[in-house]
């Protein structure tokens, strides 16, 4: 009897194992809901489903104003259900905080060594976890469980992105890349004003000064009044130069002097230096002070509540901003006649190059607790997000508050070269050089929609993207929904996609060191106030040397040594 029972059990086990083996084929990412059943102990398939439930403990922020559909919450929503359905993963939150409390909460979790199984964190938080040996090595997990799309995003960043997350050949976090174009400030200029005055776009600082003066003195708006502004600057909440897409910042004027404030750089001897304290920055401030005194820059620089009204009211001729500025100035296209803003990689330095300060190739990172038994579970959740989010948006899944407000481990992934690739593909498509059916959209989330829209909106000549060469009358809803993005890509993205004299400058370090925690706010305040006084004429250029001395003594020297150590 005992033997018979064992034979029966053996037969049942064989049937079960055979059934599981029959499901062990690896599906393609295009199969959608067709997933592989895998065991909790080993699940390399990027979209494989666990045979038994696996629980992952997470943390995240929640906007206090978020509104969920009836009966739904951050712990119980369509995205949680979708993850359970696809992977048999149960998502549990250890805690949920408001965005304003996030830094304090995650810092406490790090210091008490009480991390969740996985989280999306910033660079400083990631590096701190790495320093305290709290993170899992994700090298093998990424290679076996990262989806093709996720790998494409990572590979688009090249060595610059790899250096951010790899240590001794080990991948300690999964970065969420963002388009590098977002960190590059360009010169946006009224092309219709240039044409009216018979001028060319200014390539260097001397030409920039001359054009700004003409915009002020030669009545480019034709109203018979001397009421126009040459160059718009940042408002009172802005900065003269930043480390990212600094809308209205004067970054390119600094860069024309090869000055990169707020960046950590190496000098000619290989020593780490702070860009804001270098002689080139003093020279740039001197130039800006002269331009401000001559009235070439808005007199209400750093005083206005908002710089945008100057542009929309047709009173400004030049400002600086990143590729996505086409979204910001969208209302300018509705004017009669519409304002024709074009973007250029100007002004150039004396050597004929345009130096662009670049933001970090990623600012958000997926990290996994080294004690979590199923690190691939975190990657599966990311794989699903980047594969299916466009479909969810289209179908209205979790509309309130949407993926950004409710999806576990949410962050935005993109290709570093997404804008350049999109510009190139759209240029060829609108001229009939490529067919949509031949385009691989698998790692370009918005390109298909961009192609459909540009075909309907673009008029002859097909290689001229001035605003009058778009169908502003017959474009219908596309004017509001798609034109700002298309202008951003085709006008704002053009310099980075086509110019060959752009030199990209990256900071050695984008995080926060120990001394920065207590000293950085005061040092930034000192820098911002000193630079503003010099430019606006309330302090002489010699005060820059005093600023450098104070900066070093008040913690700057210590921070420099820490950055040098962190960036090795």
Rg result: 27 Å
- Counted up, domains total 3
Q: Stretches where pLDDT falls below 50 for ≥5 residues?
A: 1-34
- Protein structure class: alpha/beta
Average pLDDT level: 91
| SS summary, helix count | 22
CATH homologous superfamily label of the largest domain: Periplasmic binding protein-like II
CATH architecture of the largest domain: 3-Layer(aba) Sandwich
Instruction: Specify the biggest β-sheet.
Output: 4 strands, mixed
CATH class of the largest domain: Alpha Beta
Q: How do the strands of the widest beta sheet line up side by side?
A: 10-13-9-14
What's the CATH topology name of the largest domain? D-Maltodextrin-Binding Protein, domain 2
Shape category? globular
Specify the helix fraction band: 40-55%
How does this model look, in words?
This protein has 3 domains: 29-178 and 362-406, 3-Layer(aba) Sandwich (D-Maltodextrin-Binding Protein, domain 2); 183-358 and 505-566, Periplasmic binding protein-like II (D-Maltodextrin-Binding Protein, domain 2, 3-Layer(aba) Sandwich); 418-501, no CATH class. It is 42% helix and 13% strand. The protein contains 22 helices and 17 strands. The protein has helices at 2-22, 78-87, 102-111, 123-131, 139-145, 148-155, 158-165, 191-197, 205-217, 251-255, 279-293, 308-312, 325-328, 375-395, 403-406, 418-430, 447-457, 478-481, 483-492, 494-498, 514-535, 543-566, and strands spanning 37-38, 49-50, 54-61, 89-97, 118-122, 166-167, 170-171, 174-177, 186-190, 229-231, 264-266, 272-274, 316-321, 341-344, 354-358, 362-368, 502-506. It has a 4-stranded mixed β-sheet. The longest helix is centred in the C-terminal third of the chain and has 24 residues, at 543-566. It is globular and about 75 Å long. Residues 1-21 form the signal peptide.
């Amino acid at each position: 009897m005992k033997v018979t029972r064992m034979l029966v059990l053996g037969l049942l086990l064989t049937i079960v194992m055979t059934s599981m083996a029959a499901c062990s084929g690896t599906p393609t990412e295009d199969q959608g809901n067709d997933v592989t059943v895998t065991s909790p102990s080993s699940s390399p398939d990027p979209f494989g489903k666990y045979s038994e439930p696996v629980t992952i403990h997470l943390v995240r922020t929640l906007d206090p104003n978020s509104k969920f559909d009836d009966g739904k919450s951050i712990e119980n929503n369509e995205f949680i259900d979708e993850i359970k359905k696809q992977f048999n993963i149960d998502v549990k939150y250890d805690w949920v905080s408001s965005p304003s409390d996030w830094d304090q909460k995650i810092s406490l979790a790090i210091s008490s060594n009480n991390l969740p199984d996985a989280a999306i964190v910033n660079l400083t938080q990631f590096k701190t976890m790495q320093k305290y040996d709290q993170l899992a090595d994700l090298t093998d997990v990424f290679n076996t469980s990262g989806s093709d799309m996720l790998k494409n995003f990572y590979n688009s960043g090249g060595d610059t992105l790899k250096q951010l997350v790899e240590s001794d050949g080990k991948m300690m976090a999964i970065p969420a890349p963002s388009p590098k174009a977002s960190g590059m400030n360009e010169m946006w200029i009224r092309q219709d004003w240039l044409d009216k005055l018979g001028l060319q776009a200014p390539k260097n600082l001397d030409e920039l000064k001359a054009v700004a003066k003409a915009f002020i003195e030669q009545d480019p708006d034709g109203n018979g009044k001397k009421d126009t502004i040459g160059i718009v600057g940042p408002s009172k909440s802005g900065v003269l130069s930043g480390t990212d897409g600094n809308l209205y910042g004067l970054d390119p004027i600094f860069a024309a002097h090869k000055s990169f404030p707020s960046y950590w750089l190496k000098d000619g001897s290989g020593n780490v230096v702070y860009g804001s304290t270098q002689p080139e920055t003093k020279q740039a401030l001197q130039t800006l002070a002269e331009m401000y005194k001559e009235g070439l820059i808005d007199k209400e620089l750093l005083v206005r509540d908002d710089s945008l009204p100057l542009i929309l009211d047709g009173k400004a001729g030049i400002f600086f901003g990143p590729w996505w500025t086409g979204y910001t100035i969208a209302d300018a296209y509705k004017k009669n006649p519409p304002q024709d803003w074009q973007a250029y990689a100007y002004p150039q330095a004396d050597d004929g190059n345009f130096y662009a300060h670049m933001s970090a190739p990623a600012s958000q990172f997926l990290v996994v607790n080294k004690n979590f038994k199923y690190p691939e579970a975190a990657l599966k959740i990311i794989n699903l997000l980047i594969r299916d989010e466009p479909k969810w948006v289209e179908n209205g899944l979790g509309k309130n508050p949407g993926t950004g407000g409710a999806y576990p481990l949410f962050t935005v992934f993109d290709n570093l070269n997404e804008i350049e690739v999109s510009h190139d593909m759209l240029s060829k498509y609108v001229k009939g050089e490529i067919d949509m059916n031949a385009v691989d959209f698998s790692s370009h989330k918005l390109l298909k929609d961009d192609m459909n829209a540009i075909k309907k909106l673009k008029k002859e000549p097909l290689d001229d993207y001035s605003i009058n060469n778009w169908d502003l009358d017959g474009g219908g809803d596309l004017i509001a929904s798609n034109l700002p993005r298309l202008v951003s890509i085709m006008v704002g993205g053009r310099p980075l996609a086509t110019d060959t004299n752009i030199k990209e400058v990256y900071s050695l370090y984008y995080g926060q060191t120990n001394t920065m925690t207590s000293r950085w706010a005061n040092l930034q305040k000192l820098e911002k106030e000193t630079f503003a006084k010099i430019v606006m004429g309330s302090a002489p250029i010699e005060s820059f040397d005093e600023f450098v001395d104070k900066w070093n003594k008040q913690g700057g020297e210590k921070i420099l040594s820490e950055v040098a150590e962190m960036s090795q």
